[in-house]
What does this fold into?
Amino acid sequence: DFVMTQSPDSLAVSLGERATINCKSSQSVFYNSNNKNYLAWYQQKPGQPPKVLIHWASTRESGVPDRFSGSGSGTDFTLTINNLQAEDVAIYYCHQYYSIPRTFGQGTKVEIK
Amino acid sequence: EVQLVESGGGFVQPGGSLRLSCTASGLTFSVYWMSWVRQAPGKGPEWVANINQDGSERNYVESMKGRFTISRDNARNSVYLQMNNLRADDTAVYYCARDLAWFDYWGQGTLVTVSS
It folds into this structure.
C-alpha cells in the first residue's frame, strides 16, 4: 500500500501569513503516460465531511479560493495556504488515487497563532 | 445541487451486521463510480471500497475483503455497504462519496458503533 506521510502534524500561523503542509508518498504517484500526479488535498472542519481543494496535485477545485495552491511531483507534495484566514482553521489531508487501496495522510491541523 | 444521504448506521455488538445505504440526487448517478470512506473518531479518512457504474467491478481495502460488500441500484440512485462480522475497530463515521478518483462530493456520514 502507498503510505502517505504528512508534516508537520500541526502548525499555528498568524492571520495573513502563509501555511505550508508537506506530504510524502512511499511510492511515486506520477503516471508517465499522462504526465499527471495522482494526488488530492482535502480540508476538513469539525463535524463536516472532507472537502476536496485540489486534485492532480495542483488543480484547484471550482470555488476554492486562490490562496490555496498545490505543488510537487513524484513523491513529494506541498499544500500552501497564502494569506491565512480564520475560516482556514481545519485539518488538511493529502490523498493518493494512483493505486488501490486509495490512502490518505494522517492529517495536519492548522490553527491561528 | 448534488446531495448524498447516508443511512443505516447505529449501535451493533461485535460479530453483528449492518447495511448502510446512500441515496444520491442532483447527478446522473449511473455514470459515476461510487466509494465508501470511513473515519474513526479522531483519525483520518480511510477508503473502504468502490464500485463502478454498472456494479461489475468492485474494489476493497484488504482488511475488509470478505466481511464488507459494496453494491448499487441505479434505478434507486443508491449505493450500499453490507458489513458483516463487525469488530470494535470498525467503529467510525461512514461516508459515501462520488468517486472521480478523488472524491468531490461527500455525504454527511452515518455513525457505526461496534461495542459490547
